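re: ur msg from earlier - yeah i can do the aspartyl-adenosine-5'-monophosphate complex, just paste it... oh wait u already did. ok heres what im feeding in:
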Amino acid sequence: MMDAGTVSRNSLPMIERIHTVDVEPDAEEVAIAGHVHEIRDLGGLVFLIVRDREGLIQVVFKEEREPDLFEAVQDVGSEDVVRVVGEPVESGQAPGGVELVPHEYEVLDEAASPLPLEIAKDVDVDLSTRLDNRALDLRKPEVLAVFTLRSKLMAAMEEWFDEEGFVDIKTPLISKGGAEGGAELFPILYYDRDAFLSQSPQLYKQILMAAGYEAVYETGTAFRAENFATSRHVSEIAMFDVELAYIEDHHDVMDVQEESLRYALRAVAENAERELDLLDVDLEVPEDDFPRITFDEALDLLETEFGHFPEDPTDLDTKGEKLLGEYFEEQGHPAVFVVGYPDEKFYYMQDVEGDEIASRKFDLIYKGLELSSGGQRQHNVDVMREVMAEEGVEEANFEFYLEALDFGTPPHGGYGLGIDRLLQKVTGLDNIKEAIMFPRDPNRLEP
Ligand code: AMO
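and the outut:
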């Protein structure tokens, strides 16, 4: 009798198997399938370690016990895809404490050899080589763990917003102009016209606020043609965007971000134990309120604590963010909001009477890295047009947006959160590209 397993989709015909983690030592017979992770040949005895998405299992072929299968397994190669039916028996030495005595063995696909990249052995390979061979690199259990963790993290994030009544939206990736600045746009040919890849859903999120959608989120993609060579920038970004209306001020937006992030991190801490183990991460959920400091306080702190002055006095530089992150992390706060950046874009609420801050724009710094930007928007189109004129922004490029907001727009705000950076920080990876399956940077278009 076969045991029922985790892979049993009712309506789809599938090859019969269960996941390696579901193999119980007292089952009579089970079927497993996966890649050949390791082969150990000890003469009359061959150990195959088979890897599926959830783990590893050892299959022991004995010449004396199953001569035909033993003969067949002589040709096996690393990364072949195999299926084994067998009897589980307890074993102290085997991964997971159980191994299989094979009754049936079949090769579903043979892998070419030699492999350009080792999967099972922990050899030190530089990131560039790993990314050149990403198709194989993605097979490593600790790499797969990054992406199953991401899936759990974002499912929890979306769950929070669904439960709070946010509408899941989809905005266009092809646009006539940009939201974040001309120099960072990727031009494309759109039929016979010039167009661009979207930098941010920002303008569309705001149009939806004007349209009365009240609260929206989007798990999407943004493109930035920045010419960077850093460990925290890529050209194609996974972005989580949020916008909500009828806010009192930017603190309501920060509340949403803080609660949703805490919820998602909690879910990971609870439901991604195996991934966190594989990645050797001890994830601390920030249960206390995230500190909210003003931009001026951030500058003061950098000066007095570290003697550091950002080159551009209207923004925090990378080093400043890192120092600030370390300072607050030491006090038990991995996440801190910096609020009230000066000289902000026309779409942020600025110079509000009674405010001590220059604008209602904030950034979230998480473990020393800017994770998101957002704030309360300017919903008065006349004021926006004035600021655009002062800043020298071409109004014509934004006419569709200004017009949309001119027909009655509730007070609103939102933010964009870089999902890849969040994953990088949660998993403790050195480079953002490790947190992206197929990353894009100025030099990488393949695979
Ligand atoms: P911003 O341009 O700050 O704001 O982007 C939001 C967040 O996206 C991530 N990010 C990046 N991640 C990797 N590589 C890049 N090149 C890159 N650029 C940005 C960061 C950043 O904090 N329209 C506003 C959002 C809003 O106000 O709604 C915006 O896009 O984590």
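cool cool. The mean pLDDT is 94. ping me if u need the other ligands too
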